Predict the structure.
Amino acid sequence: MTVLKQHLAAAAGVIAALVLLLGLAPDAAAQQLKIGYADAELVLVNMPEYKTNAEKVQRQARSSQQELEAMGTELQADMEKFEKQAPILSPEKLEERQLELQQRYADLQKQGATKEQELAQFEADLMNPLIERVGTAVNTVAEEKGLDIVMKSPGLLYVSDRVVDITIDVAKRLGIQVAESDTAAQAPAQ
């Protein structure tokens, strides 16, 4: 979900700038703007592809974790074996084994970081096309409804009755079902 949160964070910055701009705009100009809002995350998580992709990411994460745990268990066993053998090893052999175990530990740490990056990229590769589809649907619905601005719903604290919730329309545009009760629960107070 990191990719979605990055996109939403970027959108929040734009929204903050628009709110500031609207606050400074003359009342007549601000009243002429048609504003809508949508819960893009609600639409996204209701897409069948999202659920499939989230499962793929979870499977990949489990697989990576199991692989790293197996390597860690093997390293731990070798470290315990080394501790038992240490008193009888020559100083050269002792230093050699210590360096070897330290290198394996460093390699394990590096592999963990690499797998984390790979997982994030895998998630982005799966989710970005869905996020783009939601964004395109928001733009299309906004144009159809003649909206000047569309804000993200969960970030709004107050919405007047002149502002239009387009979440259901965006979901329909994508051919998915989102219960109106879900959007009502997320809607800010009016």
The mean pLDDT is 84. The chain has one domain: 2-186. Residues 172 and 178 are 8 Å apart (CA to CA). Residues 2-186 form a domain with the Protein Binding, DinI Protein; Chain A fold (CATH 3.30.910.20).
